[in-house]
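In keeping with the milestone schedule agreed at the kick-off meeting, the structural modelling team has produced records for the first pair of proteins. Each record is given below as a sequence line and a structure-token line. The laboratory manager (R.T.) confirmed that both were archived under the project's standard naming scheme.
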Amino acid sequence: MGLVIIFTLVTIVAAIGTLRSLARKNALAILFASGTTLVFGWFSVMTFIAILGGHGVPVPAH
């Protein structure tokens, strides 16, 4: 669950960066910040879905 939290925090910070670079009209920053938002947003959503589905959670060995 910690991985989802980290990915979500990175996504939020990247989204803020995208909005700031849109306000400053910086094309390269818009490209990198929006790419980061899309990639880490996708990772956070897919990781959360995997955890809800029962995958991705380590099971202790017996």
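The second protein of the pair:
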Amino acid sequence: MDWQTCPRCKSSRYRNPSLVLKVNVCGHCLCENCVNQLFNRGSGPCPQCQVILKKDKFRVQFFEDAEMDKEVDIRRKVTQELFLREEDFPSLRAYNDYLEEVEGFIFNLVSGTDLEGTRRAMDAMKDTYKKGLQNSRWKKSNDQVFLEELVEKERASNDEVSRHAHDSQREEEIRKAKEKDQLLDLLQDSDMSAESVLADHKRKRGILDVEERYHVVPEVRPKQVIEEPPPIITAADAEWFLLDDRQLCGVEDDLNGPPVLSPDSLAAAGFLRSIRETPAAELAMGFTCVFPARRALLAAFDGLYNFQK
């Protein structure tokens, strides 16, 4: 409950269930009553850090830690100024370097480290990518284009369903109107009584309903499958996926005991005679009994030379 306590008046959510904590750009929170008292003229210093704050910049604290609200606000402002996308760079490495610099700016602004230098570096980056920022401001990203296509296809599908339902309803109304006209003609021209004509009409109508129920196959429309476009990998990005067969680091075996054979040589040396055969299900999962047997030998031979005189 400590985070639900105003640091100035010490009012807590326990004593005041209607307590509302607000936070500003400095990351320090105050209750709504303290905000109204300290900033009744529109602006004033923060009681904790003495930074001049504006009353209209206070917002309801969302996270338990007020620093998180501060970081979210700073990150939103920085990304509104530096909003380049991956397609604006020649390679994935260049885009990752750009993101790393942006994250460095956000960290410095949140922690208060070298604020002036960070702002100068941000201005220099905006000058460097000025043309790209101007183009990206009005250009849609691949994700936005994909989402718009998805929404458009969904709208077209809904329109088709609505049109099909409207046509079915219209056909049903026309059919009922024709049946009504036929019934009136029968009542006017037939020599039978009205009760007999109505009974015969209901009987025929019932037979038609049964035939339609069991013989009419509803139209099944194939479900639209929307595939996401594959990622675009440039020649510079492909270098990141190349495999390096060189051994990065070797493992030094210092058992201080007799050497243990490799997994391929254990069976030839007779170490696997008492080991059960690996079931097919375990082989399918990539397991073989050779590995635990070799581990047992490593544990048994480890440190045997420590007792040698």
